[in-house]
Amino acid sequence: MSWGLQNRLARIINPRTHRTVMLAIDHGYFLGPTSGLEVPRETLKPIQAYADTLMLTRGVLRTSVDPCSPTPIVLRVSGGTSILTPLSNEGITVAMEDAIRLNVAGVALSIFVGSEHERQTLLNLAHLVDEGERYGMPVLAVTAVGKEMNRDARYLGLCCRIAAELGAHFVKTYYCEDFESVVRNCPVPIVIAGGKKLPEKDALRLTYQAIQSGACGVDMGRNIFQSEDPAAMIQAVRAIVHENKNVDQAYELFQSLRSQREPERMLA
Ligand code: R5P
């Protein structure tokens, strides 16, 4: 791995804890305006400071993130579909040259294993890895799961391993039962997506279980920005990821931070 690539990766995954809290706000790339993300700049205000990395699209980066902000960026560079069309039919949407111009720390692309467009998305990944190696840019492979796929260790293990074999530098997938085996069989770090909004304590449990099973962190969206208190929630997630707190300790932190802000919320 080149010095530049390692340096960029160290901006994403904290070299001290070997963990990361990535904040995913890229949902609009196929969903359009998403609940909680209608005005991304507003969504980011109370929570950006607690994210190790932001994962987003080029359009949201340019319009909604201060260029002087120190938070490293993982740029989504795949897309070309919407919720109205087969999602798996993705292409690469950003030139590596623009990713470099935007000074991002990494690029992210989805693969759709088992779908109609499996080959196309896997070849997209291989191409992106070639470019990433050429320019020192880490590649995050996102294992997208179609409605018809089971989110079990067998399927997710297959997706993560294929992503790593094709050269992804780290992988994003979903937590599942026997997640240890998914991690064991994947030679690169894994972060988990949060998935649909859950009650806060359940989302913290999901985070805890993933970390205990060997995930190096989260790339979480809806369970943070759709929380009744996004700033409290991201700090509680951080406590698990970086400080090895358990679910009860993290939930207690969430409640205490939330109650401190109660008067502010009442006035808003
Ligand atoms: C998945 O393809 C995208 O990166 C999503 O926007 C991201 O995974 C969503 O994160 P979450 O499931 O935590 O809202």
Short description:
By secondary structure, the chain is α/β, with parallel strands linked by helices. It has 13 helices and ten strands. Strands 1-2-3-6-7-8-9-10 form an eight-stranded parallel barrel, surrounded by six helices. It has a two-stranded antiparallel sheet with strand order 4-5.
Number of domains: 1
Number of helical segments?
13
Share of β-strand residues: 5-15%
Q: How many beta-strand elements?
A: 10
First-last Cα distance: 49 Å
Corresponding CATH architecture: Alpha-Beta Barrel
Helix fraction? 40-55%
Annotated CATH topology: TIM Barrel
What structural category arises from helix and sheet content?
Answer: alpha/beta
Assign an overall shape. globular
CATH class: Alpha Beta
Say which CATH homologous superfamily is assigned: Aldolase class I
Output the helix-strand order. Answer: HEHHEHEEEHEHEHEHEHEHHHH
Radius of gyration (Å): 18 Å
Bound molecules: ribose-5-phosphate
Arithmetic mean of pLDDT: 96
Q: Going across the biggest sheet, name each strand in turn.
A: 1-2-3-6-7-8-9-10
Give the biggest beta sheet.
Answer: 8 strands, parallel, barrel
What are the low-pLDDT stretches, counting only 5+ consecutive residues below 50? none
